[in-house]
Amino acid sequence: MSPRTRSAAVGTASLPAALAAAGDAGELDRIADAFASGVETSQLVGAVAVLAGGLLAAVLLRRAERADSSGAAAAA
Fold first, then answer.
1. DSSP structure string for the chain
2. Most exposed: 10, 30, 63, 74, by fewest CB within 10 Å?
3. Among 54, 19, 15, which Cα is nearest to 38's?
4. First to last CA, the chain
């Protein structure tokens, strides 16, 4: 990748702009691979966040259930 193209591709705000700034097929492949890698990383981060949110919800629900059952037992 030439320095001019590299700076143009890095400074772009979108995939179409980066692809338009690419000079040859090799650069197109590298840009497409970088975009795919970024999407894959974003999906992995999102999946971990959903898993963590689910685990937190489970812990909070279990804690609330215990508080309800201990309050009912104390009232009886």
1. --HHHHHHHHT-SSHHHHHHH--SHHHHHHHHHHHHHHHHHHHHHHHHHHHHHHHHHHHHHHHHHHHHHHHHHHH-
2. 74
3. 15
4. 76
Task: Identify residue 40 by its one-letter amino acid code.
Answer: E
List the structure tokens of 19: 């692809």
Distance CA 6, CA 49 (A): 33
Tokens (6 digits) for 67: 């508080």
Convert the pLDDT of each residue in 3-46 to its tens digit: 544 545 666 788 888 888 888 999 999 999 999 999 999 999 99
User: CB-hemisphere CA count at 13 Å for 27?
Assistant: 19
